[in-house]
Amino acid sequence: MQAMYIRVKRGKTTYFLQCDPTETTLDIKQKLQGLIDQPINNQRLTLVSTNEILDDSKTLANQKVENDAIVGLALRKDDNEFEELYIAQLEA
């Protein structure tokens, strides 16, 4: 399997993560935990192209997450709900 990259975006911040198609969503969340200091269960990842929430137990390949995919990151708020997914659009 070849390494690939995904772009995890939240607001105006983008994290470039190297990953493998066989890794699960949970693996990605573990990588993010080290970057953003948020526990895994406080993260929700959404594949932006399909607007589907990624399943922790499934691999990236199973969920059609491809190289250079953009994944949105939402964090759990104090009221235990997830924040609205917000990704700043680049000005044309």
UniProtKB/TrEMBL annotation:
PROSITE patterns in the record: UBIQUITIN_2
A Pfam family recorded for this sequence: ubiquitin
Signal peptide residue numbers: none
Domain Ubiquitin-like: 2-80
SUPFAM superfamilies cross-referenced by the UniProt entry: Ubiquitin-like (SSF54236)
InterPro entries per UniProt: Ubiquitin-like_dom, Ubiquitin-like_domsf
Protein name: Ubiquitin-like domain-containing protein
Species of the source: Iris pallida
